[in-house]
Amino acid sequence: MSPVGSATQVYNLLDPSSRPGSWIGIRAKPHTGGLIHSKLLLFRTDVGLRVVVCGSNLMQQWEGDRDMMWIQDFRLCGRRLGSSSSSKTSSSSSSSSNSFGTRLRNFTDFVSGCENPSAARMMQQRVAAIFNGVDFSDAKGELVDSTPRPRPRSSTTKNSSTKQLQGIPRLAEAVNCLHAKTPPQVVSRVVSSTAASKKRCDLKLYCMQGSMGDLKADFLYEIQNAMTGRTGAAARSISKKVSKKVTKNDWAAVVEHSTRLCVLWPSRHCAANKMSVSSFLNLRSMPAKHWQEKISETAKDFCFFDASPNPAPHYVVEQKRLPAGHAKVLLLEENGRSTCYVGSHNLSKAAWGVGGSQPQNVELGVVLCSTNPQEQKLWRERLPCELPTEEQLQMTATARNYFPAGLPQWGRDKIMQAQMDAQLSGNGTKVEEAESSIRRFFLGEKKKTQKKKS
After folding, report:
1. Cα four-point dihedral sign 207, 212, 217, 218
2. pLDDT higher than threshold 50 for residue 234
3. Most buried of 30, 160, 233, 430 (most Cβ within 10 A)?
4. CA-CA distances (angstroms) from residue 224 to 87, 171, 257?
5. What's this model's pTM, rounded to 2 decimal places?
6. Between β-strands 23-28 and 337-343, what pairing exists: parallel, antiparallel or unpaired?
7. Residues paired with residue 331 on neighbouring β-strands, in sequence order
8. Is the pLDDT of residue 231 over 80?
9. Residue 193 pLDDT class (50, 70, 90 cuts)
10. Cα(346)–Cα(94) distance, rounded to whole angstroms?
11. DSSP letter (8 states) at residue 395
12. What does the alpha-carbon distance between residue 198 and residue 445 come to, in Å, rounded to a whole number?
């Protein structure tokens, strides 16, 4: 079974001089009505395979947006390519059915599968050539995928149900696997914290994303549990257990969780002064009404923080304003150990699923774990936004002047019309005027109006 219908050889996709057959385009649509939102690049050479998992689409985002990616090079096995023993080694690099190579191959087969028999054979040959002879035994992370359609059962796999874990349950399983190999450096008691007591949590979970939407408490509570690996061997039943205890408006459960959740999203003030307003066109912000009416005051103070841009120290910012962050990152810091997710999953139910339901979108990410202080420092430096300081963690949302930025519908319409006019005229003045009016709105400045003469 596959989310796609057909594969068509496409040329002139990127380079007009490319030969026919250099690119293959696949028309794909998940049966759930969601998106093929995963971002995976596989570069095969004579010496190995480079795997890239990221959050950027195959478009200008690579040059303009602030995003994150994970890259690892895998060498080839010692056997000669094309031999039967080589193929066997590549598919059996780990005894676990959830090994990195097996899961990556299953995911690639899933997204490249075709209903048309001739197209299916063509894609199977292409994928087999990419994976042939690759040694995945040195994989540094665990893959986390959302594939909203069951994969075909393999007669050679005894426990196929384990392979079907996806979304939040798979995230919990991946974290548990890494934590078993990487124990924390310092053993200390985790203290439950509330906004009233202002006690410092030993565990902090920072969430950065390109889409926030109307977040609910039950979903965030499941993310907290999964990233801390609290479910243990019961990863598959996490959603059923949580849904009975936490409702979508039960923000007290999120606040009182032993892991302090810090959702990072640009404030209106930050967006107006540091960012390109046009970049918010591609982001799904939290509706102002949801923030004002559905999020408890305690959760606003304790769980939501500004996402000020964080360029790398060596990066020279040529633009006056930076684009909004498009990266999807979950970073857990606890007792000398850091656990980091990077990939395509936004902080949404469509990406992760919730309450036992499967995700709607096809997604892919990787989870890493480290106790190396230098590596942990490097992870922080490469984040798309600055993390809140200890002082900011103790302040209320009002004291921090925090209100999540989001384009109102009139602002979207105004910028889109200005951009179309700029393409026709070659003059970007209207775009600048549109952005200026939205910045004034973010800063709470009233729009100047002229009185009509009678």
Report:
1. negative
2. no
3. 30
4. 39, 11, 8
5. 0.83
6. unpaired
7. 206, 340
8. no
9. very low
10. 30
11. S
12. 33
C-beta separation of 399 from 391 below 8 A: no
pLDDT for 98 equals 47
pLDDT of 157 over the 90 cut: no
8 Å CB contact between 143 and 365: yes
CA distances to 38, 60, 139 from 56, rounded to whole Å, are 9, 9, 22
Sign of the four-CA dihedral 107, 108, 109, 112: positive
3-class SS of residue 252: helix
Cβ contacts of residue 358 below 8 Å, gap of 6+?
32, 146, 148, 166, 167
Q: Give yes or no for a contact between 276 and 319, defined as CB atoms under 8 angstroms apart.
A: yes
Separation of alpha carbons 346 and 213, rounded Å = 10
d(CA 48, CA 130): 9
308 vs 330: CA distance, rounded Å: 16
pLDDT tens string 58-100: 777 677 677 889 999 999 986 444 443 333 334 433 334 348 9
324: amino acid identity, one letter: A
Contacts of 293 (CB under 8 A, 6+ apart): none
pLDDT number for residue 153: 52
- Separation between Cα atoms, residue 14 and residue 155, nearest integer Å: 40
CB-based burial of residue 290 (10 Å sphere; 0-12 exposed, 13-18 middle, 19+ buried)?
middle
CATH number of 167-406: 3.30.870
pLDDT single digits (tens) 293-326: 999 999 999 999 999 988 744 454 555 677 778 8
What single-letter amino acid sits at 358? Q
Q: Cα angle at 300 between 297 and 301, to 5 degrees? A: 90
Structure tokens at 84: 């039967």
Instruction: Identify how many contiguous H helices and E strands the chain contains and give both numbers.
Output: 17, 12
What is the rounded distance in angstroms from the CA atom of residue 274 to the CA atom of residue 292? 24
Q: Taken in order 166, 169, 174, 175, is the CA torsion positive or negative?
A: positive
